[in-house]
Amino acid sequence: xxxxxxxxxxxxxxxxxxxxxxxxxxxxxxxxxxxxxxxxxxxxxxxxxxxxxxxxxxxxxxxxxxxxxxxxxxxxxxxxxxxxxxxxxxxxxxxxxxxxxxxxxxxxxxxxxxxxxxxxxxxxxxxxxxxxxxxxxxxxxxxxxxxxxxxxxxxxxxxxxxxxxxxxxxxxxxxxxxxxxxxxxxxxxxxxxxxxxxxxxxxxxxxxxxxxxxxxxxxxxxxxxxxxxxxxxxxxxxx
Length: 239
Hints:
alpha+beta, Arc Repressor Mutant, subunit A, 2 domains
């Protein structure tokens, strides 16, 4: 039996590149299917849910949205490692958490964020305005962090990345906790899973997917997918 699976985006979900480099704006309709879990991807999101603003911290496991089917949701997903500077919170403090923006920011900043949402034509555009406002004061993304993501995403070993950047392993670990919410090894696992999912979603047989993304075999791929996503690869692609 072939293990090639064709899937489509979750019902009612749409996304597009944001004006902020590397960020993605997305929306989910009230009637959207809630079966599909949110998988770890190394990113953090700023969310608008029924008029309230939240920060979604970096996930280490699949997250199943608790919002009801009538909830209206928009989000901006930031490039891995860039959100902590924009949102003024270390990533590890929000690991596997969703918190209200007002609990993280000062009252004045939270009020300005709400005002930008109110003034925008849509919540998604309001989120983009918030991101641009914060980016104007936080400066450009740290090139070291961008290099770490780029190299790990390509399949490089953590030790090789640290050596290329002339960083002691402990320093890279501390930087990763603050920027990504977890160790560079965990980030590498998550980014490798995302590479594997992209191949599988494109129709690449599972054994070939495993080989092309650095897993020892298909069984290794299956174990990692279940550990990070909470379900088998076949189940995941059919949700």
